């Protein structure tokens, strides 16, 4: 009987953890932003790609370095369906993003949006936050990874270059596997034998 109670306790815990995991995924809200020379874009236009969305200040050295890293990832993963986006939210961002993209040789779209739209998108309860803020979104438009508003151990962990690389690769692989299995279930069944 004790073993049965212990087993049921383990099962309840496992179900709770998986429910919490599925509960942490949330649909990315729509986000409108402007890209110089291209006009207004919507985040939903990138559905079907794995998106790394960074909210930045064009004047922030950490953001400039993060944009350089994302340019490397865009070149490495772009052919697999990856899209990096930088969205500036600092004052006068509309006047600064074009020069930012040129000066730092950013290899993907750099746009701008008002700060309050970023705060709403991220679900922050206050106007205090650090930059860059990173969100990784799967091909179906669900957020898998998001930095917290303020720097803490979780923010530091997610912003490490190797961790970002691993998460992007995982999302690209998971999405590719899911799309292959829905297109040809026979091949997947054979591969499992």
Task: Give a written overview of the molecule.
With 193 residues, the chain is an alpha/beta fold. Helices cover 50% and strands 19% of the residues. It has one domain (25-192): Glutaredoxin, CATH 3.40.30.10. The strands form 2 sheets. The protein has a 6-stranded mixed beta sheet, with helices on both faces. Strands 2-3 form a two-stranded antiparallel ribbon. A hairpin with a 3-residue loop joins β2 (32-35) and β3 (39-42). Residues 1-22 and 180-193 have low confidence and may be disordered.
The spatial strand order of the largest sheet comes to 1-8-7-4-5-6
Write the CATH architecture name.
3-Layer(aba) Sandwich
User: Residue share in helices?
Assistant: 40-55%
Radius of gyration: 19 Å
Shape: globular
Question: Which structural class is indicated by helix and strand composition?
Answer: alpha/beta
N-to-C SSE string, H for helix and E for strand: HEEEEHEHEHEEHHH
Please state the average pLDDT score.
83
Instruction: Please name the fourth-level CATH homologous superfamily.
Output: Glutaredoxin
The CATH topology is given as: Glutaredoxin
* Overall structural domain count: 1
Oligomer: single chain
* CATH C-level: Alpha Beta
* Helix run count: 7
The unreliable regions are: 1-22, 180-193
């Amino acid at each position: 009987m004790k073993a049965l109670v212990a087993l049921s306790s383990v099962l309840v815990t496992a179900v709770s953890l998986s429910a919490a995991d599925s509960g942490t995924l949330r649909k990315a809200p729509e986000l409108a932003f402007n890209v110089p020379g291209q006009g207004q874009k919507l985040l939903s236009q990138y559905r079907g790609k794995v998106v790394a969305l960074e909210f930045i200040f064009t004047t922030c050295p950490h953001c400039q370095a993060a944009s350089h890293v994302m340019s490397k990832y865009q070149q490495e993963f772009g052919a697999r369906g990856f899209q990096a986006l930088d969205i500036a939210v600092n004052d006068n961002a509309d006047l600064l993003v074009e020069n930012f993209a040129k000066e730092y040789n950013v290899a993907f779209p750099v746009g701008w949006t008002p700060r309050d739209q970023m705060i709403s998108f991220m679900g922050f309860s206050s106007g205090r936050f650090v930059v860059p803020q990173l969100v990784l979104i799967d091909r179906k438009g669900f957020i898998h990874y998001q930095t917290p508003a303020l720097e803490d151990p979780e923010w530091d962990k997610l912003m490490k270059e190797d961790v970002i690389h691993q998460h992007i690769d995982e999302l690209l692989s998971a999405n590719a596997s899911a799309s292959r299995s829905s297109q040809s279930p026979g091949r997947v069944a054979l591969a499992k034998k």
